[in-house]
UniProtKB/TrEMBL annotation:
GO cellular component: protein-DNA complex
Keywords from the UniProt entry: Activator, DNA-binding, Transcription, Transcription regulation
Protein name stated in the entry: Putative LysR family transcriptional
Limits of the HTH lysR-type domain: 10-67
InterPro entries linked to this entry: LysR_HTH_N, LysR_subst-bd, WH-like_DNA-bd_sf, WH_DNA-bd_sf
UniProt GO molecular function: DNA binding; DNA-binding transcription factor activity
Family: Belongs to the LysR transcriptional regulatory family.
Domain of life of the native organism: Bacteria
Amino acid sequence: MSVEVVVVDLDLSAVRAMVAVSDEGQFGLAAEALGVSQQAVSKRISKLESQLGSRLFERGVGASVVTPHGARFLPHARSLLATADAAVDAVRDSRTLRVAVHGNQIADANLMRFYVDKHPDAEVELVMMGPTRTSRNAVIEGRIEVAFARASWPAHPLPTDVVAVPAYLDALHLLVGEGNPLARRDHVGMHELAGLTAWVPGAGFDSEVADFYERLSADWGITITIERPPGGIGFASIVDRIAASTSLVTFGGEGTTTPWHPRLRRVPVVDPTPAYPMALLWRESIGDHGQLDRLVDFVTAGYEQRPAASMWIPEPDRILFHE
């Protein structure tokens, strides 16, 4: 009697894509979380489905649902990734500092790229987070050493062993289409935003980002809509819709790389300028890491040039940012 042994050489990047799509609910959001294109995620999932001989997701408009076969595979996929990550950690150079950022185009990633340019010998690794698993959560859960994130979220206070220092105040501008009446303005007062509808799909998750926009809405009478477009909440989808609208607006950070669009206009907001408060977070247990002090010194020196006095930030953030 012979027994046939079938060996499937699974691609870990495909398994990671499968878990990301399950967690995020959309291929576009999974792509944002992984820092790759949506096409790359789709190809990885297709490859994995081919290897397993089963369909893992039902693709729908605006959402992807795990199939019964996918649901059975998912816990094994998570276990496989956890084992792989543990194996990497076991041989990882302890001098490398893993730093979590919100996404490839957000201000914190740009700040870190500037840091690496100025310190080419720095041993750091950027880890891209997504809307559902933010950089704040990553440092709290111990998945990385350092994170750029909003520290103050009253519903979920930081653990007492997490250190937070001011890092960057990302001044927010309005992004509007060329047909919007505000497109012809060289600036707009904060009080003039009352009654406007701002589309911020990234605030549609239980996170410190959502709390920020809820407080902005409450303080200034701005309606925040979090509708998710069929194509996901990537910048390209957001910019396309805003550029085509005569009434809808969104916010773009001064330090964030916004995709260029010929019909998109950026309008500064003044008196006061709203700003997203980013802090640098790390656990006390990694305080003796060789790369940490250099990064903290660089970030805090840069923050001293951006006082919070002339900006609007949520009340819970003012103590940390010395307003």
